[in-house]
Write a structure and sequence with these properties.
The chain has one domain. The chain is mainly α and 531 residues long. It starts with a helix and ends with a helix. Helix 10 packs parallel to helix 15 and helix 14 packs parallel to helix 16. The longest helix is centred in the N-terminal third of the chain and has 39 residues.
Length: 531
């Protein structure tokens, strides 16, 4: 019994390091979004900005933080497990060279095809004078961000494989800080004299943030002995493994962003009661999506990042009992963290959105619409987080086909749901967000069912029993949050009181229900403070 407890403590500590760094990243991310909301509001300009960032962001998930990370870490970990540092170094050099060639070319193509992208994903932008043209310019400005973030993702994979979790997690904070600082400098202070519009300066800031994110990680990578040297060798076994995994992983990793873009298409065409295309739905969904990413970044991504090297190592060494145990414990941690977070966002969302965004050009009406979208997104948070763990688990086993098949099915299902919600039921932004959440939950359930059958079980009964306990504790927390809403007139106080009170009530209920993961998280946190 000692070994599993030791493994769990190690996993919790690694996830804790990432979570602390990601918490800071999310804070700086909210600061960035607050600046954007204050300066751009929620209308035609921010709609165009969202699409200008979202299209290159799809390519980022295709070739960087999604597919590349999932394919590179297992192959690189396998090379490290052979105790041949030269082999790992060679794999790193070849991968970086291929990224520069392939992703650099794709970035140039993306800039050239920008009008086609905007026409495909937001044809209704033509209905607002100047909106389509602005979106095209912003897409062209942001696309050079792609090779930068691809190289940053590889650096992150190298550091994760060496159990260095803090620096890559903090690097995303540098992206947020760098993008805001450069964007404000160019867009608002130097822009008028240079003929650059403020929103164009903020788009340039995204590229500057990518530079900062990459440069921050390079010293740690070099210190480990991975200074880049140009290499090309398609016959290298590690490269062949990455390519085998990355083809299907491109589809799998991009599924969420493809679904978001499909939903952006529907959102861009939402009409008011008079039948006119509305300004704002794309913006409201984007602001809500940022809030939805907070618990995903704090809990889902850190646990998955900490678990992936362990899963890859266990698979490479044939230790399947350890693989199953790591996967089951990681799922338990994700559920105990994300279910109450989802409930809290759904109930306290409007107060939180008002506190963060309702300044400058971001109006009370924008807060209300964003909160409605957030409630729809919140339902899917546990599904999103579980997917971040389960898809890479398949890659660690050398199976990239299963996540790809499920991802393709999810794209079709999402399109059908979004069409039904917007065009038939006329649910507006709430329907768009809810369709994405349903897809995330079904995707996670399908992945868990298949991997359980593949491994001969992953403790499914224990996971289900744990989920039921978490739902009971979250229900008690929901009552407490609703009482805060009823008793507190101030928007700021609702969030300030509701969040800590909800967390305390959930912890108390979870402790009474003897939810094991809550005690484990508490012990890991206390051990850090005692140091």
């Amino acid at each position: 019994m000692a070994a599993p407890k030791t493994q769990e403590k190690s996993l919790l500590q690694s996830a804790g390091v990432v979570s602390a760094a990601v918490a800071f990243s999310r804070i700086t991310g909210f600061a960035r979004e607050t600046v954007l909301g204050w300066l751009l509001g929620a209308g035609a300009i921010f709609d165009a900005y969202v699409l200008g960032y979202r299209i290159p962001n799809l390519a980022r998930d295709l070739f960087a933080e999604g597919a590349l990370a999932s394919a590179f870490v297992p192959a690189f970990t396998r090379a490290l497990a052979s105790e041949n540092k030269d082999e790992a170094r060679e794999l790193s050099n070849i991968t970086a060279t291929l990224l520069l060639l392939i992703v650099g070319t794709l970035s140039a193509l993306g800039m050239w095809l920008s009008p086609w992208f905007v026409e495909t994903f937001a044809p209704d932008f033509h209905a607002i004078p100047g909106k389509f043209e602005l979106a095209v310019r912003l897409v062209r400005i942001v696309f050079p961000f792609l090779p930068l973030v691809a190289l940053a993702a590889q650096a992150q994979g190298i550091l994760y494989a060496h159990s260095r979790f803090g620096i890559p997690a903090v690097s995303s904070s540098l992206f947020n800080v760098g993008s805001v600082f450069f964007g404000l400098t160019v867009g608002y202070w130097l822009g008028p004299s240079l003929g650059i519009e403020p929103v164009e300066g903020m788009a340039m800031g995204i590229v500057a943030g990518g530079v900062a994110q990459l440069l921050f990680q390079l010293p740690a990578v070099w210190k480990l002995g991975y200074a880049w040297k140009p290499r090309l060798n398609f016959r290298h076994e590690g490269v062949r493994q990455i390519l085998r995994l990355m083809g299907p992983a491109v589809v799998t990793g991009a599924a969420l962003q493809i679904n978001v873009l499909v939903n952006t298409n529907f959102a861009a065409g939402i009409r008011d009661s008079a039948g006119h295309v509305m300004n704002g739905p794309v913006s409201w969904l984007a602001y809500a999506f940022r809030f939805q990413q907070l618990p995903l970044g704090l809990f889902g991504i850190p646990v998955a990042a900490a678990a992936l090297p362990r899963l890859s190592r266990a698979a490479a060494e044939g230790k399947m009992d350890e693989f199953r145990d790591t996967l089951s414990r990681s799922m338990g941690m994700i559920l105990v963290a994300t279910v109450p977070a989802a409930v809290g966002l759904a109930i306290l969302g409007e107060s939180m959105v008002a506190l963060v965004y309702q300044h400058g050009k971001f109006l009370a009406a924008d807060t209300h619409e964003t909160a409605i979208a957030l409630a729809g997104y919140a339902i899917g948070i546990p599904g999103y987080a579980a997917g971040k763990l389960l898809s890479p688990a398949f890659y660690a086993l050398g199976d990239s086909r299963t996540p790809m098949v499920i991802a393709v099915g999810s794209i079709a299902f999402n399109a059908a749901c979004a069409f039904t919600a917007v065009e038939i039921l006329h649910l507006g932004t709430a329907g768009v967000a809810l369709s994405l959440s349903l897809v995330a939950i079904l995707n996670a359930v399908a992945l868990l069912a298949v991997i359980s059958r593949k491994l001969g079980g992953v403790g499914g009964r224990e996971i289900l029993a744990n989920l039921l306990k978490v739902l009971v504790a979250a229900s008690v927390m929901a009552v407490a949050c609703l009482l805060v809403l009823a008793a507190t007139p101030s928007v700021g106080l609702r969030a300030a009181v509701g969040i800590p009170l909800g967390a305390l009530v959930f912890y108390a209920a979870a402790s009474l229900l003897r939810i094991h993961e809550v005690a484990g998280v508490k012990q890991a946190l206390l051990s850090k403070f005692r140091r």
